[in-house]
Amino acid sequence: MRKNIGAVVILLAMIGMQPLAQAQPTYPNKPIRFVIPYPPGGGTDLIGRMVGSQLSDALGQPVVIDNKAGAGSVLGTEFVARAQPDGYTLLFATSAGLVINPLLRKVSYDPQKDFTPISLLVTSPLLLAVSPSVPAGSVKELIDFARKSPRKLNYASAGIGAPNHIATELFKYMSGVDMVHVPFKGFGPGIVDLMSGQVQVMFNPVTGLLPYVNSGKVKGLAVTTTERFAAVPDLPTVAESGLPGYDYKLWYSVVGPAGMPAAIQHRLNAEIVKILNAAATAKKLASLGADPRSSTPEGLMRMADSDRKSLGKVIRTVNVKAE
Questions:
Q1: What is the mean pLDDT of residues 300-313?
Q2: Is the distance from CB of 318 to CB of 169 less than 8 angstroms?
Q3: What is the DSSP-derived secondary structure letter of residue 72?
Q4: Which residue among 110, 197, 209, 311 is least crowded, i.e. fewest CB within 10 A of its CB?
């Protein structure tokens, strides 16, 4: 009798739990907001939109792009840090937002504690170019010339604290050369002055400089990653052509607010890995100057921590200050 009563109690409990289990919605069951902390139209935005579109197809729900630009990606990054960690607000996070900005200025988020890592998306090299007047056809020759003529060369950046500013300061630090920094409001004006010879050196995203390299208006010397870039296979790396150990890359990733459920984190990671493994995706990303590089959530955090240490040392050594 006792066994029968126990069985009935268990059965009734299971029946009672069924409505609760059925009430738990599967993820996702509504549109997802994908915050891109940059204005629409640029290379970063195009990569984010492409990933968002494919993620929408994979998840079966709209992924709505929300451009929240401002303060060098700080505004959009802060917005996601304060969002509900339910998987319906995601951030197209960049190395600028998670590493460089917190090293340069006071921000209202902690890049190590306020986000749930999901996956690395892509890495992208910068291209080192010089104006035609510079008597250097390689990184080694550029370093030799700059050492013999300290502060004779001017280098352009998209502004103090911009990725190409940090990349050039890393180059100066490792090579022992001294060049004069000329900050511009964006990449475009710097490229114009590079072609005219008003500035002589510039690191810039590949897609922005490549047309001018191909037309002979500037000289492309190398890419900044440790491996050659498929879009410009004939260009060596900085490390192999004169400055061993040099490595600088832009990277983009997906993160959410801290506290996201592990099941949602892993579901998003799995879908992103599938997207980035597709040959068609790699081809599209190459046209935008990027390499697909998925990762585990832990791998993304390790890479961000590594950059934070290495770039933090450079920023402190050369005393880079935010505008």
A1: 93
A2: yes
A3: G
A4: 110
